[in-house]
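Please, structure for the following, as tokens.
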Amino acid sequence: MSELLSLPAELLESILIFCNGEGHPLSVAALAQVCRQLRALVYDAADRHLWRALFLKTFDDPRLLHSDVNEDIDWQRAFTERIWASNFLQRTARPLPVSPKKRTLRSNTSIMYPIDSLPHAQDSDLENHVRLLNTLLSVIKSACPSPLHQTVSPSEEDSGLTGAHARTPVYPPGAQVQTPSLNIAWLARTLSHGLPFTLAQRIFSWKVVGYGHNTTHNQCLGQLTAYLGFLPIPTVDAETDDAPPPPSPSRQRRAGKSRAAPRDERETEAQDMSEAAQRARARHRARPRAFCMDYLSRRRNWGPYLAILPRASDDNDNDDNGDGVDVLDALAEVSDSDLDDDDDADYVPLGVDDGSVSSSSASPEPGQLPLVPSTGALPTPEQLRPDWAWLAAARVVAECKLRQHVDAEDIAKLEDWDNLRGGAWVPEHPRPGPDDELGDPEKVEGSDEVAEEWRKYERDWAGAEGIWRRLVCWLDYDDLIHHNTLGGFQDDPDLDEAWIIVPLSLRIAGYSAPSLPHLFPDRPTLHVEGEMGGGGWVGNFDGADEDVRRVHGTVSMLSDGNVRWSTTSTAPGSNEDEWASESVQLGGVGSAMGTLGMWTGAFHEDGDPLGVIWQWRVG
């Protein structure tokens, strides 16, 4: 011990950093428990240089994302939260022992019965789950920017949308290996065994609204699923030495579990626990949410957003009535059946601290919920929050449809977690200084005589201008009405979504003031227009456009820092609007993962259909 204490502090710190880099992050805490002198070295240093070095040995530097992030980062908290998350998953996310024998499956409902019968999460689990999910989300959000993807310049012989379709791939180009992300690599290692059983069960059972007032749980799980896709539980042969032993009582207590689950693991021996079966179960549970026509509501802005609730005194009024009132008064209890009511009584969750290491103040303070819009008004950008539970269902439906018809290699290009990194399609622009000239006031109608400050930032900050691919999923209208009328989606083995992937070409037509100038003054609203393949698009490379629709819309910011994409397409052979879509960026701004959202009728009439869209840029 005396020899160890005689070493210089700098050498001891280097040893700790080396041990952490070799995959032993707990060595830091272990050394601090040896004696007071070593504890002071770890926890009582005058600055946080040791914790910064430990963090940067394993994770991306968050200062690369925001120029205003400097020494306000709590390196110790950020590092210890992520190590806690890794250890928590090691204790609770284990491969499921199964028998290689499978019985004949009679319905989708029976595929995952053992998972449904696993113990329900207890209160202590919910706390740990939210902490885990927020930590994982913070790792994604603070991943280093992606290298700029190369765009394909149009050639003289290009012929409109058909030419753009011919010269670009269907799926995003692969990530640049010369600039890997430590965050994404850590995420892949940490989630190699998936999520804990009780979290996976939430996706399999797919409750519309669960856990009473604890809505952050569903939203955090939904956001992670929308980002990463469905994470199946790995399985091992129960008769091999690789099968994990049942958890010890002490491990169960540390994991926050109230009872063990060996009975459930034995039951899995008679069940089909293959990845395909798990995905089929998740898809079966996602459809009722993704294709629920009650989501088409003014309070949701006819998109994948959380509903703005009316005050209690307006319960007997029409769907869109109600003066402004704080939503906190309406957040009592919401049952699972509320989504089926005509008043679309969903929830708006409390503010969520995503655990991000960023010190940005762009997000509103927790508890600052929006007011209900006045009669006939749409929710404002500050009031809109993505409904990540719906977006997760949309992601499951979309990816399962792709896996039915697309090569695994192409799917891997799209679902690569590196695609969540921001900046893949954002062209480099020098940040304007205080003396830079402002943009042309004539470019936007209704501009003030004195140009606003935001005009200095007129640029494609979202990576919108280029060639995209859009996946569109929908149900046959008779099936959509049938299952919505029955009050739920029955176990219909013949039910399947129609789908199409069409090209989409966008260009920036102009700019207007930021949707939230007090939060994002450097991100003006982008006005886009272009062309998109319609339902009759075939994709012939003969130089002649087929079913081509005009597209127009906007790209703007939401108050929680997410990017909102609103587009409208016209009817075939006409300039009249037909379909409208609302989608949210997956991952960082300008990510290669693209946007995920909902489409419906442009005029929001009774009986309008709805479906899923997932679009990604390819050039």
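Residues 205 and 411 are 26 Å apart (CA to CA). The first strand starts at residue 96 and ends at 98.
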